[in-house]
Write a structure and sequence with these properties.
With 92 residues, the chain is α+β, with helices and mostly antiparallel strands. Helices cover 29% and strands 16% of the residues.
Length: 92
């Protein structure tokens, strides 16, 4: 009976267990210039999108780190700052 909760997962298998996500976004929807489709489930206020065009090559983690290294995984796990700020503002 939580009033607020959210679970995040990049586009993957979790939707087959939890059903359709409540919200889908790419970092470029919130001003960060790359794509990484991400799903959210939960009870929260949806942040307002302010999309920009993703920049080709600006955020190519695999090219910067040499592929599926630990550093690649670490960089990909960082919450996009534009989304974090928008989500905070809509749920504070």
């Amino acid at each position: 009976k939580l009033k607020f909760w959210v679970m995040e997962n990049p586009n993957g298998m979790l939707r087959y267990f939890l059903g359709n996500p409540a919200f889908i976004f790419n970092p470029c929807d919130f001003g960060d210039s790359y794509k990484k489709e991400t799903f959210l489930w939960g009870n929260f206020n949806e942040p307002k999108k302010n999309p920009i065009e993703p920049q080709s090559g600006e955020w190519n983690i695999h090219a910067k780190t040499g592929g599926k290294s630990a550093k690649t995984k670490e960089l990909r796990s960082i919450t996009p700052p534009g989304f974090a700020k928008a989500f905070y503002e809509s749920n504070k």
